[in-house]
Design goal:
By secondary structure, this protein is mainly β. It folds into 2 domains: 117 residues, Immunoglobulin-like; 190 residues, no CATH class. Strands 12, 17, 20, 21, 22, 23 and 24 form a 7-stranded mixed β-sheet that branches. A hairpin with a 7-residue loop joins strand 22 and strand 23.
Length: 321
């Protein structure tokens, strides 16, 4: 039977399942504690006998934070892995993640009672945007291809796009999956267009800051993939493994004094993916991007119910704000 206590839950221990204790600290984006916030926790209880490997049986529970935004739970886990989420806080974006204990000692998962800090962001001003992920191809290396983010297509003659917001060019070589040295270069059309990375809010569905910055944009991004047959894996270079998040600015128009008169702002969740500068071309994944269509608006809070791309296939639909 479960025994409840203030901001915590205790569940009985079985001999074949080490005991785990874990704590949570929930705050808003201004570091204020969130009281009475429900945290939902799931872990593996056991594997039931059956055909093949049997069936994994999970157990779950909920715990409320106290006035300091703190909650704790003590129970058993077969594999020391917990998933957790806080997605029922009215007026806030959901948050969550996965925690894996390092080891068990004396029937207790270690480290003992780690504290997971989770930031929940309030829903303030979500707006319509163009949002999708693109999987496409770069036809040939050593050529510069323009991509229209509003049309989600290459510009002519490769596609039906009208305005080149980004340019992609592959250089180097890619002989096979064990021998390549390639660079994907991303450039822009207008002065003061550009891109810059940002650090996401860990565990929050709304990863980005609310507002894109005015300054700090770079006019070029170089991504490399390098591997030679004789190299060990420690010497490989693969920037496509990065899940870097970015802000970008496009379609910038300057006034007579060289100041920004008009521009469009957006964000990217995740890193660009490509194979390399093969003579047969290369696949290219443009990660999930969000483009605010309102000129000069730097609001990056997307409303998933108002995606300006319509009738997207399931794999290109965007649910994260």
């Amino acid at each position: 039977m479960a025994a409840l206590f203030l901001a915590g839950v205790s569940v009985g221990c079985a001999a074949d399942k080490p005991e785990a204790q874990i704590s949570f600290k929930l705050t808003d984006e201004n570091s204020a504690p969130l009281a009475n916030a429900p945290v939902h926790i799931v872990t593996l209880d056991h594997v039931a006998p059956g055909a093949g490997f049997g069936d994994s049986i999970y157990k779950e529970t909920n715990v409320l934070t106290d006035v300091k935004g703190l909650a704790s739970i003590t129970w058993t886990s077969a594999d020391g892995q917990f998933s957790y989420d806080a997605n029922k806080m009215l007026g806030y974006y959901e948050g969550g993640g996965l925690y894996l204990f390092k080891s068990s000692l004396a029937d207790q998962w270690q480290p003992r009672n780690p504290t997971i800090e989770l930031v929940l962001k309030p829903i303030v001003n979500p707006v319509p945007m163009y949002a999708r992920e693109i999987k496409t191809r770069i036809a040939k290396p050593e050529q510069r291809y323009g991509y229209d983010l509003l049309a989600a297509d290459w510009v002519a003659p490769q596609g039906k796009g009208q305005t080149a917001d980004l340019f992609f060019e592959l250089t180097g070589y890619a002989n096979n999956v064990k021998d390549y040295n390639s660079t994907l270069t991303v450039t822009f059309t207008n002065p003061l267009d550009g891109i810059q990375s940002f650090v996401p809010t860990k565990g929050s569905a709304f990863r980005s800051p609310r507002v894109a910055p005015l300054d700090g944009y770079q006019d070029k991004l170089d991504l490399r993939r390098v591997r030679k047959p004789e190299q060990s894996s420690a010497d490989w270079i693969d920037d496509t493994q990065s899940e870097t998040n970015y802000f970008f600015r496009i379609r910038t128009v300057l006034d007579e004094n060289g100041k920004i008169k008009s521009a469009l702002y957006g964000k990217i969740y995740g890193g660009f993916k490509f194979f390399g500068a093969s003579t047969n071309g290369s696949f290219l994944t443009i990660p999930t991007y969000y483009l605010n269509p309102e000129a000069n608006s730097r609001n990056m809070e997307f409303d998933p119910k108002q995606n300006l791309f319509k009738n997207l296939p399931p794999l290109e639909r965007v649910s994260a704000p």
